[in-house]
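Lab channel / #folding
Pinned by the channel admin:
"Please post every new chain as: sequence first, then the structure tokens as a reply. Keep commentary short and put observations after the output so the thread stays searchable."

First post following the new format, from NK:
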Amino acid sequence: MHPVFPLELERHIFLIAAEQDRCTGAVLLRIAYRVRTWIEPCLYHSVDTAESDVYAAFLRAAADKPDILRVGVRQMMASSLGFDDSITTLYHAIALCESLERITIAESLTCTDLLPILARLPIRRLAVTIDLIIPGTRLSEAAQCLRYVTHLEFFGSIFGSAMDEPSQASEVIVALPSLTHLACAFPPRDPDAWLEKLPRLRVFLIAPLTWPPDSLLEARYRDQRIVVTYWERWDECASYDEGYWDRAERFFEKKRRGEVPENEFRAIYDGPALPPLDSDADDD
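Reply from TO:
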């Protein structure tokens, strides 16, 4: 097949088509070798291991075409659903993803072997059970392993039974050099006091597992970086899709404009206006 358009324009057209639909991208691989070299890495930009076909293709690429993963994978969601392979197999494949910037990984797939792998990758957005990856690692070393992370959600609680006791995990978070956004479901009992240790943090987002949690809504916070909101997907911290970080930023912008009082910390739904309920439908 000979190019009809200028090569760069042709490449741009094929990439847009592949990015909009993975199935279309798979078909386009057959057009010409040059098209395949453009598109194939693009098909691995986002890997969700809960999709069995996607995960199988990911493992095949790790075995047969590792260079594609090195440049292709930018985002990964690693869950515990549908796994027949070992964590070692998964970790080996993740280690190949030298352009990986965003990863969400389930607690059941998390252990200390993950930390040195993350240390070699340019991870900027991370959702993880952080206390499971740092045992036996010095605080400064653990923080350096996650030196690029700007957005972090820690699964579970990193505080003691009193919810305000410092732990190794909480101290690692404090030491992260690039951290600007932090999310959790179980905050410390006194987040205002703990946030004094994080002067560079811009957003502390509390996304509880149930909504509305009376104790969080009734709390009297002071730190204006705190926002209490909700989550819709388990990978919102590291996703390219619209999520709670966007909702938090819009909430803070409303505060800056004076549309939200300083003593309000709840960011509720702020999307398009919902259509009115169809009363006739209830009668059917």
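NK: Strands lie at 46-48, 75-78, 102-105, 125-128, 151-154, 181-184, 203-206, 226-228.
TO: also worth noting, The mean pLDDT is 83.
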